[in-house]
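hey m, so remember when u said the C-alpha cells were messed up on ur end? i reran from scratch. heres the input so u can diff it against urs
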Amino acid sequence: MSTQPTKTPDADVNSEFTSYYLHRATQEFAEDLDKVRTAEDFKNDALNVLVNALQQGTAMFSPEEQRRVVESRGAGGSKA
C-alpha cells in the first residue's frame, strides 16, 4: 500500500506563491521602491495601488508554475 504525497490546495499555492513573489520583487526593486515611496508626490493611499500593481505580476505565472515554485521551496528551502 503506497501513500501519495499530500497535494497543497490551489488556494494555498496561490497565497504562498504571491507571498514569495512579493518578497522577491521587493528585494530586487528595493532601491526603486524607496525612491517611489520617498517621492514628494507619493501619498500614503498610493501604497495600496503600488502593492496591487506588484501583485499583478503573479498573473504571468501559470498555476502549474506557481505550484512548482511553491513545492520546490517546501522541499528544498529557498529555491526559485
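this time it looks ok to me. The mean pLDDT is 86. if urs says something different then somethings off w ur setup not the seq
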